[in-house]
Design brief:
This protein is an alpha+beta fold. The chain has helices at 3-69, 92-95, 128-155, 159-162, 167-177, 237-306, 314-345, 358-375, 395-411, 443-446, 470-480, and strands at residues 107-111, 117-121, 185-192, 195-201, 214-218, 228-233, 354-357, 379-384, 390-393, 418-426, 429-436, 484-490, 494-502. It folds into three domains: 3-67 and 157-235, no CATH class; 240-329, Helix Hairpins (Orthogonal Bundle), CATH 1.10.287; 350-502, Histidine kinase-like ATPase, C-terminal domain (Heat Shock Protein 90). It has a five-stranded mixed beta sheet with strand order 8-10-11-13-12, covered by helices on one side. A hairpin with a 2-residue loop joins strand 10 and strand 11 (429-436).
Length: 507
């Protein structure tokens, strides 16, 4: 996959994830607003119900007092009277529509037994249904007048004196019936001449800034001289809203994080595979170059031996055979390194642990390597300061480890190599330090030098010999010996490797 395609894929995936997060944020915001709207509606409905209950209690009180103390007026009629202001011509049948109807006469003539007429005065007969209806209407009008007078008198009272029930209890019941179980604070306030005064409620009623207050008017009517309001707020309202939203926000957030994590992980794998592919290509090219050089040298030396036109003096034959031997050894060494890493990858590495003296191994390795440094007009200084240098380890692999670090120090030195090697004790460790004053390693490359096939870029990929396997081998050997390796480097000033091995305590 090309770099351009990877960049396009990463951009598309990033846009898709960002769009998904944006849609979820909008959904969460709308849900939060809807929940807040529903909460506000329910609270306002509960306050309105409590206000209606206060009105009902006041009206109920009027009827109780009216029934207890009011004495109705007794109306007596000395003669027939349907009802005042009635229309005599109105049909009696129409008037009696609502009940029993009877007709009364003022006098009547009755024939006696002897055939003569006698005028008799009749008794007054009234129409009960019409009279009782009139009395009820009259009483209703009288009661309405008393009620208006009662309400006018009540409206002039202080609001705290008009409250005939426990507001907190009523609010609590109304809110719980509407599935709101949050603790609340309430108070009753009245305004008079532009000043607002709290006259009832919780003594610690003091909403913080940003806390929403809900209110509803109390005893509201046109004759009321003061605007009275019932206030309530919920100290834990924001926490409750967050808790309610979290029931679906957390799963959504978790799924989003999982998707983002998969996206990042996938992108890292793609980039790592791209990098590994590039490293392997460099390794193959470099290995081809490294193997081709000694093979070409051996081939050329062989041709010289076969060429009969050349004088094959003993010195010439000795020189050519020496070149063939050195190049064959070099070729064998390169192949051995590749085989060693193959063994490491398959997990088949077997070490032979014995008690060895690290000072002795370092001294021997420094002595053998000093010849190469001297040929390049360089210096190799060794200081064996470790008093206890006994460790348990594989002598062959420890020796190879030291040679690999010395080889790197020489290869990445400047024109004249200068290398320092020392041993010392620190706590329960024996430390081997190899320091050079070469080109150094940049910070961006420092964390990658122990990866397989990785070679520090120095311009031409072939200007420094090797496969990029040396430091990977070194780290693996150190880990197998339960040690640790540290590296410090500055570009242009050199590099320092410190390897820690656990010592064998001497009793």
């Amino acid at each position: 996959m090309s770099k351009k395609m990877i960049n396009i894929l990463a951009t598309v995936m990033a846009i898709a994830v960002a769009a998904m997060v944006w849609v979820q944020l909008i959904t969460i915001n709308k849900t939060a607003k809807l929940q807040e709207k529903d909460f506000n509606f329910i609270v306002n409905r509960a306050l309105s119900d409590v206000s209606d209950m206060l009105d009902f209690q006041e009206i109920k009180l009027f009827y109780e007092l009216d029934a207890k103390y009011y004495i109705p007026e007794v109306i007596s009629s000395g003669g027939l009277s349907l009802y005042p202001n009635s229309d005599p011509s109105e049909s009696l049948k129409k008037l009696g529509r609502s009940g029993e109807l009877s007709v009364s006469y003022n006098s009547s003539a009755v024939r006696n037994s002897n055939g003569s007429f006698e005028i008799r005065k009749s008794q007054n007969i009234i129409i009960p249904s019409m009279q009782s209806s009139y009395n009820r209407r009259r009483e209703k009008q009288s009661q309405d007048l008393r009620f208006q007078s009662y309400m006018l008198e009540r409206s002039e009272m202080k609001v705290q004196n008009r409250i005939e029930m426990d507001i907190r209890q009523s609010l609590d019941i109304e809110l719980k019936e509407k599935d709101i179980f949050l603790p609340f604070k309430y108070c009753v306030k009245t305004s008079f001449k532009g000043k607002t005064e709290k006259v009832a409620g919780d003594p610690d009623y003091s909403p913080l800034k940003g806390t929403r207050e809900y209110k509803t008017p109390l005893f509201y009517d046109q004759t009321s001289p003061r605007p009275d309001f019932l206030f309530v707020y919920f100290p834990d309202q924001h926490a409750q809203q967050i808790k309610a939203i979290s029931n679906f926000v957390l799963p959504s957030l978790l799924l989003t994080l999982i998707i983002i994590g998969i996206f990042v992980f996938t992108l890292q794998i793609i980039l790592r595979q791209k990098k590994l592919s590039q490293i392997k290509n460099d390794f193959i090219n470099n290995m081809t170059h490294e193997l081709k050089t000694p093979i070409s040298t051996i081939s050329l030396a062989s041709q010289m031996l076969k060429d009969n036109s050349l004088v094959h003096s003993p010195s010439t034959i000795d020189h050519i055979s020496g070149v063939i031997f050195d190049e064959s050894k070099r070729l064998s060494s390169q192949v051995e390194k590749v085989l060693q890493m193959a063994v490491f990858n398959e997990g088949k590495l077997k070490l032979k642990f014995t008690e060895i003296d690290l000072n002795q191994i370092v001294s021997q390795a420094a002595s053998n390597f000093e010849i190469r440094v001297t040929i390049a007009n360089g210096t190799l200084e060794s200081s064996l300061l470790a008093e206890n240098s006994l460790i348990r380890g594989d002598e062959v692999h420890i020796t190879n480890l030291i040679f690999n670090l010395l080889d790197n120090a020489e290869k990445y030195s400047k024109d004249i190599p200068r290398i320092e090697i020392l041993t010392e004790n620190k706590s329960n460790w024996v430390i081997v330090q190899i320091k050079d004053y070469g080109i150094g390693i940049s910070k961006e490359n420092l964390n990658q030098i122990f990866e397989r096939f990785y070679r520090i870029p120095t311009g031409n990929v072939h200007n420094v010999k090797g496969f990029g396997l040396g430091l990977s081998y070194v780290k693996r050997i150190v880990e197998e010996h339960h040690g640790k390796i540290k590296v410090e480097s500055t570009v242009g000033k050199g590099t320092k490797f410190r390897i820690y091995f656990p010592i064998i305590k001497i009793e």
